[in-house]
TrEMBL record:
It comes from Allomeiothermus silvanus (strain ATCC 700542 / DSM 9946 / NBRC 106475 / NCIMB 13440 / VI-R2). InterPro entries: CRISPR-assoc_RAMP_Csm3, CRISPR_Csm3_endoribonuclease, RAMP_III_fam. This is CRISPR system Cms endoribonuclease Csm3. Keywords: Antiviral defense, Endonuclease, Hydrolase, Nuclease, RNA-binding. NCBIfam families: cas7_TM1809 (TIGR02582). Residues 29-217 form the CRISPR type III-associated protein domain. The lineage of its organism: Bacteria, Thermotogati, Deinococcota, Deinococci, Thermales. GO terms for biological process: defense response to virus. GO terms for molecular function: endonuclease activity; hydrolase activity; RNA binding. It comes from the Bacteria. Belongs to the CRISPR-associated Csm3 family.
Length: 225
């Protein structure tokens, strides 16, 4: 097995509606919003974790392919077939839990897709700084109302989100490995990555997608290395 090349995917994630990727509320202070967004602890700027991007891409691709990916997955664990050529296992990787799976993972080789954290572009950061005086830093605080089915009294709740129009620079790297086929299998599997990016734009990213949050548009290009 030998690493013979890379495909670098890089570009812009543009928010078409507010984005909320949540963080732990363990350190909330009095007066904080109910649902804060995740932030870089050094800069306090909201960002999109690579794990969120990669996880949503895998989720959407598995639903697109269907079959055992869905029917044999458990509540918290994904299903990976015992086939070193399985495209989802090769692209997104797996965590083997027994000796047989470890041998298959060794034959399959390293995870092909690396997904970096995505950060605000300088232009978007500058535009969002004007919002500081009106609420959260580089974010908006959206108030919603929950109406109990019995009683009917409105209960307000707040959610922090990155507003529509913000842009994040993102980068992914796809490894092409020669597993005795000259890299043919990995090159052929790359269309699954592009399909996952297409599905991401049709579905959404982060939380509350069914309530209008998380619609994104991608502008990217692919470079061979």
């Amino acid at each position: 097995m030998r690493l013979i090349g890379y495909k670098r995917i890089h570009g812009i994630i543009r928010l078409k509606s507010g984005l909320r990727i949540g963080m732990s509320k363990d350190q909330m202070a009095i007066g904080d919003v109910d649902n804060p967004v995740i932030r870089n602890p050094l800069t306090e700027e909201p960002y999109i974790p690579g794990s969120s991007l990669k996880g949503k891409m895998r989720y959407l691709l598995e639903w697109h392919l269907g079959g055992d990916y869905i029917s044999r997955s458990s509540e918290r664990h994904v299903y990976v077939p015992d086939d070193p050529k399985d495209p989802v296992g090769r692209i997104f990787g797996s965590a083997p839990s027994n000796e047989a799976q470890r041998r298959i993972a060794q034959e399959r080789g390293p995870t092909r897709l690396l997904v970096r954290d995505a950060y605000l572009t300088p232009n978007s950061k500058q535009a969002l700084e004007r919002m500081t005086a009106r609420g959260g830093y580089l974010t908006e605080v959206k108030q919603e109302v929950f109406i109990p089915r019995i009683g009917g009294n409105a209960n307000p709740r707040t959610a922090e989100r990155v507003p529509a129009g913000a842009e994040f620079a993102f980068e992914m790297v796809y490894r092409v490995m020669d597993t005795g086929d000259g890299g043919q299998t990995d090159r052929a599997n790359f269309h699954h990555v592009e399909k996952a990016l297409e599905l991401l734009q049709l579905d959404g990213l982060g939380g509350y997608i069914s309530r209008g949050y998380g619609q994104v548009e991608l502008d990217y290009r692919v470079e061979e290395k």
